[in-house]
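Dear Dr. H.,

I hope your travels went smoothly. While you were away I took the liberty of generating a structure for the chain from your last submission, since the lab meeting agenda had it listed for discussion. I wanted you to have the full record in hand beforehand rather than looking at slides cold. The sequence, exactly as received, is reproduced here:
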Amino acid sequence: TDIRVEDSGEYQCHVANDVGSTYHASRLNVYGSPFVRRMQNITAISGEDLVMRCPYGGHPIKGIRWLKGN
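The corresponding predicted structure, in token form, is as follows:
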């Protein structure tokens, strides 16, 4: 299959037989262009805490900046 940036992560290979089992884990980093998924509008209440999430991907990401307006 075609590999995508979203496929990055830790993978484990497990093996077993009648005398035992073992596994090994390895991290896969898939390099790709940065992207940001569409964000929904948020309504907040003045004086309350607010958490805003930016659904992004790509690898490697060198930084994320939040800007207000254009």
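Two observations you may find useful: The radius of gyration is 20 Å. The chain has a mean pLDDT of 92.

With kind regards,
E. W.
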